[in-house]
Amino acid sequence: MSEPVQRFLGSGETLARLHDRARTLRRLQEVLARSLPGPLGEACSVANLKGDSVILIARSGSVASRLRHMAPSLTAALAAEGFAVTRVEVKVGVTVAPQEQAPRPSRTVGAAGRESLEKLIAQLPEGDALRASLQRLVDRSRPE
């Protein structure tokens, strides 16, 4: 982090506690990543540290099951790094991939419809909201 941000984060008591908490969680994540085999370490993350419990989020149920079986070795690895953790909680975090939106269908107006709209637009007074809306409709639509 840059020096001005560090100064800002350390300036207030609340921000200093938040900064310390974030640093602790980041250190926990680093220890977790070193303690687990490659793919398993990438499939989970530290969610929180509450008292003597660390809460992990797994990407799937199978990863969560494996982490639960490895809980004793994880607590030992975390204790070796100076964390007073005696319990590992594992939760499955479901991620939902964003759905791609279908492109909007292009609007087409037939020649007769366009002609009728233009006649109606000509009859409406200048500055009328309906006239402006109809003109936008004609301008944005493609002829058939």
Automatic annotation (TrEMBL):
Pfam families: DciA (PF05258). It comes from the Bacteria. This is DUF721 domain-containing protein. It comes from Pseudazoarcus pumilus.
